[in-house]
Amino acid sequence: MDEKNLSTPQYPQKAHTRISRQNEDQERTKSDQRKKKKRAKKIGGIKGIATLKTKKEFDRVYHRGRAYHSEYFVIFYLKAPEPRVGFVASKKVGKAVARNRAKRLLRALLLPFTNDLKSGHFVFVAKPKILEAKFGEIAPVFEQIIGKIVHD
Question: Is the Cβ–Cβ distance between 74 and 125 less than 8 Å?
């Protein structure tokens, strides 16, 4: 039998296998057609306060600013016209998950004081001990140091 003369079975094409771009929206439900609202972005995790971004900005605060130490963290403060914050956790704190947790803790500690902050640049540096302590132990220490900065 000669195979080159055999035809392959031809199946009928399905109707509307692909919707053209022109008619794409007509096939969607109304809920799919709604435009998504853009949320107000929280910068640095704290709404309304800008963050320090570049190494140069952080270094300026480290070298020209004043340091306030505790066993859980260090706060560097430099007087400036507008409030800006930065959160740092070095590899001494731990791997990425631990460092992120330490920075989240610092953000959570700062949240109640955002209205009380005087203008200036703040860098919050986590120490390894911050992960061993409970939030309730760290909060009073943080409040005391922020109080010192505000009253200085």
Answer: yes
Q: Is the dihedral of CA 134, 135, 137, 141 positive or negative?
A: positive
73 touches 142 (CB < 8 A):
yes
Q: Which CATH topology does 43-151 take?
A: Ribosomal Protein S5; domain 2 (3.30.230)
With b for 16 or more beta-carbon neighbours within 10 A and e for fewer, the 68-106 pattern comes to beeebbbbbbbebeebbbbbbbeeebbeeebbebbbebb
Query: What is the residue-wise DSSP string for 64-111?
Result: HSEEEE-SSEEEEEEE-SS-EEEEEE-TTT-SHHHHHHHHHHHHHHHG
Average pLDDT over residues 23-49: 59
Q: What is the value of pTM for the model shown?
A: 0.70
For residue range 78-127, list pLDDT tens digits in order: 999 988 999 999 999 999 999 999 999 999 999 988 887 778 999 999 99
